């Protein structure tokens, strides 16, 4: 699926979603946001794809946020739906990696936080500047950032609108890994390769257990884990994993 500013490239078991609106620092329009759900549904349904990567084109920004010029054209009911579109990276049952080089701000950071992994170059910068415009993050940013970095840092970060660098973002837990400016491609490729070699059904199940269990009562989360583990016993990949271990050979996972 390809649109004016979003495109998908497939290579082996990896699909890369490119945000490509370089003259505007890859800021996202309402139309771009509305294209993301169908794009992720297609990738989720494609058995050939095991890992999804999201990148910003141009080397200056992952995405500098939403297109501010559109904000006053939307009524509250539209904004409620608009804020849900960036959650589809989280809803995708496959691992999703945000490869960040440059600015990840506002809605761009919210999209990155909906991903499972965030790998960023040292020169990258992160911010929720919404408070400076009389608003707040409205596409998942407040809650996902809070769960990653905690209340004390979350309030400082969001209530001041300050920018932080990648090394600080890594120390806070906002991103997964900070890499040298020339090391992004290698780091993302290595992570995608590692994930692509894992059992797809187990990864899908684990992502669900982690995401759903994180905010559930402990006993409920433990029950979810036990039932998910028991269900995996019925899959070919579970049996293949055990047999390959006993036979001392690499496993061949098929996603069945």
What does this structure look like?
With 256 residues, the protein is of the alpha/beta class. The chain has two domains: 6-196, 2-enoyl-CoA Hydratase, Chain A, domain 1, CATH 3.90.226.10; 200-246, Lyase 2-enoyl-coa Hydratase, Chain  A, domain 2 (Orthogonal Bundle). 45% of the residues lie in helices and 16% in strands. The chain is built from ten helices and ten strands. It has a six-stranded mixed β-sheet with strand order 1-2-3-5-7-10, with helices on both faces. A hairpin with a 2-residue loop joins strand 1 and strand 2 (14-19). Helix 8 runs antiparallel to helix 9. The protein is globular and about 60 Å long.
Features:
single chain; alpha/beta; 2-enoyl-CoA Hydratase, Chain A, domain 1; Lyase 2-enoyl-coa Hydratase, Chain  A, domain 2; 45% helix
Explain the layout of strands and helices.
Blueprint lengths: L5 E6 L2 E6 L10 H16 L5 E6 L4 E3 L12 H7 L5 H4 L4 E5 L2 E3 L1 H7 L3 E5 L3 E3 L13 H20 L3 E2 H7 L4 E3 L4 H13 L3 H14 L4 H15 L3 H11 L10
Parallel strand pairs: 2-3, 3-5, 4-6, 5-7, 6-8, 7-10
Antiparallel strand pairs: 1-2, 8-9
Number of domains: 2
Instruction: Specify Rg, calculated over alpha carbons.
Output: 19 Å
Fraction of residues in β-strands: 15-25%
> Helix tally?
10
Residues in helices, as a percent range: 40-55%
Which strand order do you get reading across the main beta sheet?
1-2-3-5-7-10
Which CATH class of the largest domain is shown? Alpha Beta
Number of β-strand runs: 10
* Biggest pleated sheet: 6 strands, mixed
Mean pLDDT: 95
Q: At the fourth CATH level, what is the homologous superfamily of the largest domain? A: 2-enoyl-CoA Hydratase, Chain A, domain 1
């Amino acid at each position: 699926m390809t649109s004016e500013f979003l495109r998908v490239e497939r290579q082996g078991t990896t699909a890369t979603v490119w945000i490509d609106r370089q003259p505007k620092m890859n800021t996202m329009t309402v139309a771009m946001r509305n294209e993301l759900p169908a794009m992720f549904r297609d990738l989720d349904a494609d058995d050939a794809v095991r890992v999804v990567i999201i990148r910003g084109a141009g080397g200056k920004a992952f995405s500098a946020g939403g297109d501010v010029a559109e904000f006053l054209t939307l009524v509250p009911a539209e904004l409620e739906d608009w804020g849900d579109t960036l959650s589809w990276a989280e809803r995708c049952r496959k691992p999703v990696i945000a490869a960040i080089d440059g600015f990840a701000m506002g809605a761009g950071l919210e999209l990155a936080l909906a991903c499972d992994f965030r790998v960023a170059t040292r020169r990258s910068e992160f911010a929720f500047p919404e408070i400076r415009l009389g608003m707040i993050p409205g596409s998942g940013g407040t809650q996902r950032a809070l769960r990653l970095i905690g209340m004390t840092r979350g309030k400082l970060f969001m209530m001041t609108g300050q920018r932080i660098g990648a090394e600080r973002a890594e120390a806070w837990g906002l991103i997964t890994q900070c890499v040298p400016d020339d090391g992004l491609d290698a780091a993302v490729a290595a992570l995608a390769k590692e994930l692509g070699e894992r059992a797809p059904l187990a990864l899908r199940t684990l992502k669900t257990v982690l995401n759903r269990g994180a905010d559930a009562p402990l006993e409920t989360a433990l029950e979810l884990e036990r039932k998910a583990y028991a269900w995996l016993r019925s899959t070919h990949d579970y049996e293949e994993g055990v047999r390959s271990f006993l036979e001392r050979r690499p496993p061949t996972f098929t996603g069945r």
